[in-house]
Amino acid sequence: MKCIILAGGSGERLWPISRELYPKSLIKFFEGTSLVQNAYKIASSVTSEKNILTITNIRQLNDTVLQLKQINSKPIVISEPISKNTAPAVASALTYLQSEKDDVVLILPVDFAIKDINGFISTVEKAKKLVKKGYIVSFGVKPSYSETGFGYIKTGEDLSFGKKVEKFIEKPQKSDVSKFINQKDFYWNTGIYMGKLSALMNAYQTHAQAECSGFSKEMFDENNKIKYEYYEKLPNRSIDYALIEKIENLAVVEMETDWFDYGNWQALYNNSEKDSKGNVITGNIIADKVKNSFIHSSKELVAASNIKNTIVIETEDALLVCDKSRAADINKLVDKLKSNNDETTLARKTMFRPWGYYTCMNAGDGWLTKIISVFPGHKLSLQSHNHRSEHWVVLEGTATVILENEVHTLNKRQSIDIPVNAKHSLQNHTSEPLKILEVQKGDYISEDDIIRYEDIYGRVK
Q1: Residue 303: its pLDDT value, please?
Q2: What's the angle, vertex CA 132, arms to CA 128 and CA 138, rounded to 5?
Q3: Residue 411 and residue 400 in contact, taking contact as beta carbons nearer than 8 Å
């Protein structure tokens, strides 16, 4: 049996993969492991490590490989050049696994946890029996409380080891959820799926061809990275919406174990250690007369007073405040912001690219400062700007700078000026990360002021 771990699921909206930023309560729950390590250990309980494939985003690749090497010296990891949700990710992983053997494939999200491994193994064995009969199988959990943030499965006909899926109900209304809890034919959808490789690929060809059209082993480079041109125009859809909800031969098996979803704020609160007032508080927090709340600070001081049943989350990009019982509505708010195309509201300080990432530090009239981090062995496109000049200072590592066909090698604390309209490229030919400070100056400061001439990620138009 093969296993695919999706190491970039909804949990990354809550916490980065790096375990250093997890709340201490989650560190204790996972016994010191990160989300991806935890999922890998669950996968290795039902198949050998040589059969486990992890797919992650390029921005998380180095961290993911580093953590998995603490468990397996040679983990198999493929990476997406850009995020396109779970439907393209699974299609890519299935393409990578294609061979003459029609293996059974188990698909695991990264943002869940279980303690009873034996119960999970028993569930997998039941699912295998349905898979051999031609079914694609979903793993369901009986609802234990009212939760509008989960998808629900309504079951129908009884099968030997599970039930036939009648329909999916994605993010239902709270009035409906209370009814589901008391009915034996409703389950939470865990996002765990199993099927034969051929059955899953056929389902993609039938229901989600846009996510896999043109896919072949040629889409991967020698380092198992997916080439940019294969991903650039793919739709951004979940596997549930694009594929699973449309499959006719779909069954569900009930999980015979505990299950916790860490892609959900309410679930995080429910399964975290609380203080004497029912609070989960992590980070730089001052709290007075606070009850039954979840407050987290990644950096800045957060002061809270006279609140209850509230979620407060501070990140470098935004401050989230919401009623704990309405945490599932957060995605609706994000969708609303996206529909308004409010770039100012949606602006993120840190943006990830195939070559690494940059963080905007400060900006003013005609100027902007960034910290640019380039992964080992990666480079930015050969490009120019019509409206701005740039000044680069190396903070960490060694930079190779191409400026108007001349090659410059810069070490820590050395700098270089990039004039307006000059062709240039920033490159990291070393095995260590490269970090520079960039100061942009000009009459127009925007990411669309860029002309690409050469790019290893296929972004030249």
Answers
A1: 95
A2: 50
A3: no
